[in-house]
Amino acid sequence: MIRINEEIAIAPDEIRETFIRAGGPGGQNVNKVSSAVQLRFDARRSPSLDAEVKRRLEELAGSRMTRDGEIVITASRHRTQAANRRDAMARLVNLIAQAARAPTARVATRPTSAGRARRRDDKVRRSRLKRQRGERFDADE
Predict the structure, then answer these.
(1) 2-100 sits in which CATH class?
(2) Of 13, 35, 83, 87, which has the fewest beta carbons less than 10 angstroms from its beta carbon?
(3) Cβ–Cβ under 8 Å, residues 79 and 86
(4) Dist CA 28 CA 63 (whole Å)
């Protein structure tokens, strides 16, 4: 089992890995060895995640999620396949852990009286500046 947090663990058979050739530096080796990893996780059909986590995960994944609800993570930062596997898995675990955290509700607050006074003063100052840009300006206004 792959531990996400205290409540969520994903079975290894829910994740599919395919190895592809990576671009970038590496000389001729890059054309011969499939060191990049493409990790696929079917988030919509996963029995490990509850509906709320799935909804937040879909929001967070963005373009990494296919129309079928599968999250695709491609890792090719490192030159070895093993390092790319670890990187892809860590990114998936991090993404799911982020989705598992419920967002904190915003508590509405009112501006302080000093804050309101500052805002009014700024508006007066800005108004005076704009009035000065006109054809004629009277300091008494």
Answers:
(1) alpha beta
(2) 13
(3) no
(4) 31
Query: Shortest CA distance to 39 belongs to which of 2, 51, 48?
Result: 2
pLDDT classification of 141: cutoffs 50, 70, 90? low
Say if residues 2 and 15 touch (Cβ distance below 8 Å).
yes
Helix (H/G/I), strand (E/B), else coil: 94:
helix
* Measured distance CA(96)–CA(123) in Å, rounded: 46
Query: How does pLDDT run across 68-115, given as a tens digit for each residue?
Result: 888 898 888 887 888 888 999 898 888 888 888 888 888 999 999 999
Query: What angle separates helix 81-100 from helix 51-61, to the nearest 10 degrees?
Result: 120
Q: What is the dihedral of CA 118, 123, 127, 130, to 10 degrees?
A: 100
Domain ranges across the chain: 2-100
Question: E strands within the chain?
Answer: 2-3, 9-10, 15-20, 36-42, 70-75
Contacts of 14 (CB under 8 A, 6+ apart): 41, 42, 46, 48
Cβ atoms 81, 19 nearer than 8 A: yes
The SS3 of residue 63 is helix
Residue located via tokens 């059909």: 45
